[in-house]
Amino acid sequence: MAADQHPTDEWLLLRYRRFGDQNAREQLASRLMPLAEHVARQYRHPRYEADLLQAAALGLAKAIEGWDEHRGRTVRTYALPTMHGEVKRWLRDNVWPLHVPRRVRDDAVAVRRATEALSARTGRAPTIGEIGALLGLSAESVLEAREAAALLHCVSLDAHVAALEGDVALGDLVGTIDVRLARAEQLVALGAMRPLLRDDERLALRLRFVDDLTQTQIARRLGCSQMQVSRILRRALDRLHAAAQGQVT
User: Could you tell me the pTM of the whole model?
Assistant: First the structure.
């Protein structure tokens, strides 16, 4: 090739494949890197931008090694699906925070792209039926794919977020089951039985079961003996038990 002629992609690749010319390979890879960058940007994952570009570059390297001059395809035509395949593989293996079947993962990617394409074409959000018709999927499969795609946006409970208390872990803000809720009905029932008890009985029960005082400590508070405290508690508990059983008239 004359020095003033611009070498084609195929010429550079053949030069590398036949003569081991590393300069030709590097020149070809450098020339095709903008194509790899374009492929990576199509997946719109700013958080994984560097990883997707690396995956696309790996696809480019595989295309350079795997291109067959006898199949009639240009290097770029062969490299594009190879780069897309590597990016999809990386996303499938690394981005999903929960296990999702491969079929559903592939459908989720296809549904997202179809949604974008139909929105650009019609100027509105496409219906489930329109997306399914374009992809040959049932409405259930489209909905399943959309639900799976939502898993991509899961946030770790260890992630730090801004709150009134300052920078705290998300898990610290997630509500937990309050075991006291299970006692709510019991507390309501006991509240209805309050008039059945004398003042000293209500006080003795509170000191024993709420403040967790011993009978000796309660006796000092009530100004009576421990034996009297025991009788007060027993009498109050018997009356509450009878009321709970519907035996009080």
Answer: 0.43
Integer Cα distance of 172 and 76 in angstroms: 51
Buried residues in 101-114 as b, exposed as e (16+ CB within 10 A): eeebbebbbbbbeb
CA gap 15, 7 in Å, rounded: 10
pLDDT higher than threshold 60 for residue 137? yes
| Residue 65 vs residues 16, 56, 62, 102: alpha-carbon distances, Å | 10, 14, 5, 28
One-letter identity of residue 3: A
For residue 4, count CB atoms less than 10 angstroms from its CB and return exposed for 0-12, middle for 13-18, buried for 19 or more.
exposed
CB of 39 closer than 8 Å to CB of 87: yes
3-state secondary structure of 95: coil
Average pLDDT in the chain: 83
Instruction: Classify residue 72 by its DSSP letter.
Output: -
What pLDDT shows up at residue 68? 83
| Count of positions (residues) in the chain | 249
Query: Domains in the chain, please, with CATH?
Result: 9-94 (1.10.1740.10), 99-175 (1.10.10.10), 179-244 (1.10.10.10)
Give strand ranges (E) for the chain: 160-163, 166-169
- Read off the DSSP letter of residue 85: H
Mean pLDDT for 34-47 is: 87
What's the pLDDT tens digit per position in 192-206? 787 888 888 889 988
